[in-house]
From TrEMBL:
Name by which UniProt lists this protein: Cobyric acid synthase
Protein family according to the UniProt entry: Belongs to the CobB/CobQ family. CobQ subfamily.
Pathway per the UniProt entry: Cofactor biosynthesis; adenosylcobalamin biosynthesis
GO biological process terms held by the UniProt record: cobalamin biosynthetic process
InterPro entries xref list: Class_I_gatase-like, CobQ/CobB/MinD/ParA_Nub-bd_dom, CobQ_GATase1, CobQ_N, CobQ_synth, GATase_3, P-loop_NTPase
Boundaries of every CobB/CobQ-like glutamine amidotransferase domain copy: 246-450
A GO molecular function held by the record: catalytic activity
PANTHER family reported for this sequence: COBYRIC ACID SYNTHASE, DETHIOBIOTIN SYNTHETASE
Residues of the active site: 325 (nucleophile), 443
Known role: Catalyzes amidations at positions B, D, E, and G on adenosylcobyrinic A,C-diamide. NH(2) groups are provided by glutamine, and one molecule of ATP is hydrogenolyzed for each amidation.
Domain of life: Bacteria
Cited Pfam families: CbiA (PF01656), GATase_3 (PF07685)
């Protein structure tokens, strides 16, 4: 098990790296995190919802993601409340204090998921959450030391040296643990190190003298391009030089599934910026309104911040606008919440797409495939292209009479994609467009290289660049290279033999 001294210490990445190494060494490996709190989620082939960190780690193992790897997913929908998802299905919305009292009832679900993985895999690499030394949360812990005790897992403790104070992080964490918990920690990993290791060595020696636990690795700060899901992600704050094609993603307060836009970041010709103020918006070639865990609240924030007015103005000046899931709902005419799933009541939308949205009690969770309709406007070259993806949403959006269809999905797996027709009862309308404004419920749309390249070329063409030659880009191949680089870096910076010995292998 990998635990950290704090959030964003690098647990998810190190778990992925160890998963990759053990897989390369010939073992059957699976990741596991009993409870994940994240707004970035994924829909499995069975139509079940799980956190994307375990999806990324499963990719590193070369296996299909399963909700067994993340039996509990918490998706905060307010400062004090969260949606609880167990084994991929919604259990309901609860206040934080109520969940704290309820969580121990989920232990049987955790044990069952883990035991099923344990039956099929040689090694399970478990990820903790936050810090095991949150002394106000230690009672009935199910994700850190409580989880380690549940399955008798040895623990490696990770400290983040990049933020400073790593020795205090590690010593303080251990001092706040019970003796039995301290004894579970078999090694220390220092993460995100920059500089000359020889300068660090005296501190490592003193650390070992203090805690009597060996340091098993000093991992360098890695410049990798791997999906992350943490709200502390550096993607939101990194400085991006404007490239040939400039895309601005609105950083909503409750932004979800921002991994949708990772493929754009992988392209040399594209700059992808996350913006949360009018001054940061500038003059992009395309504005993306992303998914959100609370569409109505984030739409009100958009309105109050002045970004709604700026988006409408940019659209009227010809800037391409694309809404995904919650962003798609915002772009419509109205949003109604009769069951108080989010905000309650009815509010007007931005008014740029011909749809009305009503929030229902049941969540849509499904893998989908379909194709674009015959389009107009700057993205007309997407016409009739096929795609695959997934949907996660509470609302149902209805096309207003006369509205234009962006995407059509099929419900019959034997139906040829290129022959989809929205008038066919076996098809479902899933998106809408109007002039230079487009929207759909489908996540993962841009993972398709054909869709991705067509959008970038279309945006370049709108700037008068008709001859843009894009480098061949295969997202899956790119991901594999990044996982291999991660594994190579870890092999060169940790005592892998000692880690195998700790596991009894």
């Amino acid at each position: 098990m990998i635990q950290g001294t704090m959030s964003n210490a690098g647990k998810s990445l190190l778990v992925a790296g160890l998963c990759r190494i053990f897989t390369q060494d010939g073992y059957l490996v699976a990741p596991f995190k009993s409870q994940n709190m994240a707004l970035n989620s994924f829909i499995t082939e069975e139509g079940l919802e799980m956190g994307r960190a375990q999806v990324m780690q499963a990719e590193a193992c070369g296996i299909k993601p399963s909700v067994l790897m993340n039996p509990i997913l918490l998706k905060p929908n307010s400062d004090t409340g969260t949606q609880v998802i167990v084994n991929g299905e919604v259990r309901g919305n609860v206040k934080a204090i109520d969940y704290y009292k309820y969580k121990k009832e989920l232990i049987p679900d955790i044990k069952k998921a883990y035991s099923r993985l344990d039956r099929d895999y040689d090694i399970i690499v478990i990820e903790g959450a936050g810090s095991p030394a949150e002394i106000n949360l230690k009672n009935d812990d199910i994700v850190n030391m409580g989880m380690a005790k549940m399955v008798d897992a040895p623990v490696l403790l990770v400290g983040d040296i990049d933020r400073g104070g790593v020795f205090a992080q590690i010593v303080g964490t251990i001092l706040l643990l019970e003796e039995e918990e301290q004894n579970r920690i078999k090694g220390i990993l220092i993460n995100k190190f920059r500089g000359d290791r020889s300068i660090l060595e005296p501190g490592l020696d003193m650390l070992t003298d203090r805690i009597h636990i060996p340091t098993l690795g000093v991992v360098p700060y890695m410049h990798l391009d791997i999906d992350d899901e943490d709200s502390l992600t550096e993607r939101f704050t990194k400085n991006t030089t404007t490239c040939l094609v400039d895309i601005a993603v609105i950083q909503l307060p409750r932004i979800s599934n921002f991994t949708d836009f990772h493929p754009f970041e992988c392209m040399e010709e594209v700059s992808l910026r996350y913006v949360k103020s009018v001054s940061e918006l500038k003059n992009p070639d395309m504005i993306i309104l992303p998914g959100t865990k609370n569409t109505m609240e984030d739409l009100l924030w958009l309105r109050e911040s002045g970004l709604e007015t700026a988006i409408i103005k940019a659209s009227s000046n010809g800037t391409t606008l694309f809404g995904v899931c919650g962003g798609y709902q915002m772009l419509g005419q109205s949003l109604s919440d009769p069951y108080e799933i989010e905000h309650g009541g009815t509010i007007r939308g931005i008014g740029l797409l011909p749809i009305d949205t009503v929030f229902e009690k049941n969540k849509t969770r499904t893998r989908v495939s379909g194709c674009f309709s015959t389009l107009e406007g700057p993205l007309k070259d997407l016409s009739n292209l096929s795609f695959e993806g997934y949907e996660i949403h509470m609302g149902i959006s209805t096309l207003i009479e006369g509205g234009k269809i962006l995407t059509t999905l099929h419900s019959d797996p034997d139906l040829p994609l290129e022959k989809l027709d929205s008038s066919n009862p076996k098809c479902k309308i899933d998106g809408a467009y109007q002039n230079n404004v487009y929207g759909t419920y489908v996540h993962g749309l841009f993972d398709d290289g054909n869709v991705l390249h067509t959008i970038v070329k279309s945006l370049a063409k709108q700037k008068g660049i008709d001859t843009l030659e894009l480098k061949t880009f295969d997202l899956q191949e790119y991901k594999e290279s990044q996982y291999d680089l991660l594994a190579d870096t870890l092999r060169n910076s940790i005592d892998l033999q000692k880690i195998y010995e700790i596991m009894g292998l």
